[in-house]
Amino acid sequence: MEPTESPNEPKPNSYEQPVLDALRHVWWAGLGLVAVAGEQSSQVLTALVEKGKQMEPAVVEHGKKATHEVSETVGDLGEKLKDLAAKVGRSAGAAEAAWDERVAAALGRMGFPSKGELESLSAKIDALTAKLEQMREQGG
Description:
about 140 residues, mainly alpha, about 80% helix
């Protein structure tokens, strides 16, 4: 598409015309870039949203599974400590409490969450999952 000249504009000299044409092409290329970028960003955003929707159930399930496994491990550890206390002749209740406190403190120092924190996190995940299901049902 060649640029058109207005009847009121002075005719450019022969050496000016290529420069003006080049500037117009740069202008058009810039406008085209903005248009394409807008179209592409919309497509990318849509693709990311769809991929997120697909991944959500697996991520939630993985989080629940990990929370359950850690909770079971903490429970198993408590049981093993209880058995150990009984074998060495200590009061099971006192030994369990002492060991639980020590293990909880050691795990806390290493950055592991407590059983209560894991249960709270599990409850929050369950609440969020229920809310997402409710939103899906309302949204269609």
